[in-house]
Amino acid sequence: MPNGEEIDYVIDQTFGYVAMVTSRLIQRVLAARFKKHGVLFGEWPILLFLWARGATSQYELSQLISIGEGTVARVVARMERKKLVTRKRNENDKREYIVRPTRKGWSLRDKLLAEVSDLSAYMHRSVGEGDMGALMAMHRKLQVSLGKLLQESDGEAVSAEETDF
Question: What is the CATH number of the domain that holds 20?
Answer without folding.
Answer: 1.10.10.10
